């Protein structure tokens, strides 16, 4: 294990971190590791990426590029990304580790992640338009479907009818 961070050259509390999806590892300090795992927040610490993006080690370039993408609100980070060059295979590696920005997350009223097939409970009486009934609070809706283009909508069967339900009116059971 290296005795200094591959990004900022700090020597305190350095640990090896895998650069997914490959098996390559680099040494990172606690601050850089937190930025990799939880997303960086624009701060003077990340100025170290000015040097890291030009590293001879591909894994360091990949991590620096991903962190710069996470700092896209910062003008200096966007400028650095504009001039940075990564070999095509390194760029593919860097992009393959980013979360899909098009992937929607459906969350219930408490913030719990919903998946297709889950069961939920209504937390409010909901008048169902066009069906002439009210879905009562406490009604269980089993085997829900996620609406692919709207994170606030799910579909489920209530009283034998398939309806669209807003996620803010359900909790996962």
From TrEMBL:
Q: Which residues form the Protein YjdM C-terminal domain?
A: 106-172
What is an example of a GO molecular function annotated in this UniProt entry? hydrolase activity
Q: Give the record's keywords alphabetically.
A: Hydrolase
Lineage, top-rank taxon, reads Bacteria
Protein's name according to its UniProt entry = Phosphonoacetate hydrolase
């Amino acid at each position: 294990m290296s005795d200094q961070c591959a990004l900022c050259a700090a020597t305190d509390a350095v640990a090896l971190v895998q650069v997914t999806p490959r098996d390559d590892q680099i040494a990172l300090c606690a601050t850089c590791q937190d930025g990799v795992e939880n997303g960086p927040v624009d701060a003077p610490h990340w100025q170290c990426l000015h040097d890291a993006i030009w590293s001879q080690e591909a894994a360091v370039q990949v991590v620096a590029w991903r962190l710069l993408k996470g700092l896209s609100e910062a003008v200096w980070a966007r400028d650095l990304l504009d001039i940075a060059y990564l070999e095509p295979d390194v760029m593919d590696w860097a992009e393959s580790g980013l979360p899909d920005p098009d992937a929607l997350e459906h969350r219930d009223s408490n913030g719990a992640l919903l998946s297709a097939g889950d069961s939920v409970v209504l937390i409010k009486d909901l008048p169902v338009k066009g069906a002439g009934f009210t879905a009562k609070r406490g009604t269980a809706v089993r085997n829900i479907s996620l609406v692919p283009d709207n994170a606030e909508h799910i579909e489920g069967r209530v009283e034998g009818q398939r309806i669209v339900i807003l996620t803010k009116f359900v909790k996962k059971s």
